Amino acid sequence: FPVTIPQEIIEHYVKPYEKHAEKEEAHAEAKPLASDKYPGIISNPQLLLILEEQGVGKVTASGTEYTEKINLSGLDLRSVNFKYLNRFIQSDLRKVNLKGVTIEEVQFRGANLEEAELSETTLREANFIRAKLSNTRFKSAELSDANFYGAAGVNIFFYEATLARVNFKEVDFLEADFENALVIQSNFESADLQGANFMGADLRQVNFKGANLTAANFRSDNLEGANFKDTILDGANFAGANMLNASLEKASLDNAFLGEANNLTMEQLEIAQFAYNAETLPEWVNQKKLSWQRRF
Fold it and tell me: Which residue of 74, 121, 195, 228 could cross-link 251, Cys pair, CB 3.0 to 4.6 Å?
């Protein structure tokens, strides 16, 4: 027989349960709060809004967040906790302010960082492969073991930066400024560094093989053990530089300034190209110049 439930029982027991079930269903379908989805960056509401609008941020196997192909151009990101944001592959980061931040194993591969402020940052082992870096500032940054392979830009500022063991292979850094930077054991093979300023830099055991260093400034540099094999050094200035054990094999020295270079030997010059055409040479070389066999 059909059972009729009294109305007072329905009102007291059934309807409250149905309302509770509706709330549970709505809560299950709701998007997570920004503070839950992107922990550690709630202090930057503008950034949170951008991340939500662009629908970025994924959880990796380790539980950390990463982002790719996002537009953060012009933002001040100094207050961000980058523990949960360290992957900016192919992102638009033009004119961002990252001054003084520390980011572990950050990925900037293919990103546009033109006119960005990265001074005093700690970005060890950072990936800048094929990044765009025109007018980017890395003043006093810690970039040891970073990878800039194939990156490009003009007027990049590395003043007093720490660049030990960095890969700069095949970069296109016209008129880059490395003044007073620590660049030991780094690799600039086949790089285009025309007009670069290395004044006062520590370039011990740096590999410049095959690089174009036309009109580069090496004044007062420590070039001990540096490799300039097959390098274009036309018009480069070595005044006051320490050339101890530096290799100039097949390097072009046309119109170079070698007159005040230190620890430069005849053996080094004899295996170079166009050394006879250098703009200036050490005085002891000038005395022997007539006996040279021209190598062009």
Answer: 228
* Residue in the structure block whose two tokens are 């006062």: 200
Tokens 């230190």 belong to 262
195: nearest Cα among 163, 228, 236: 236
pTM greater than the 0.85 cutoff: no
Q: Under a CB-based contact definition with an 8 Å cutoff, are residues 250 and 273 in contact?
A: yes
Q: Quick: pLDDT tens for 108-125.
A: 999 999 999 999 999 999
Q: What does the DSSP 8-state code read for residue 13?
A: I
Token pair belonging to 147: 């990878």
The span from the CA of 282 to the CA of 121, in Å, is 41
Closest C-alpha among 120, 29, 6, 111 to residue 69? 111
Query: 286 phi and psi, to 5 degrees?
Result: -55, -35
* Two structure tokens written together for 289: 């110049």
Q: Give the tens place of pLDDT for each residue, 253-275.
A: 999 999 899 999 989 988 998 77
DSSP state of 142: B
Q: Do β-strands 172-174 and 152-154 pair in parallel, antiparallel, or remain unpaired?
A: parallel
Sequence letter at residue 152: A
DSSP label at 224? T
* CA pair distance 229, 16, nearest whole angstrom: 83
| SS3 assignment, position 277 | helix
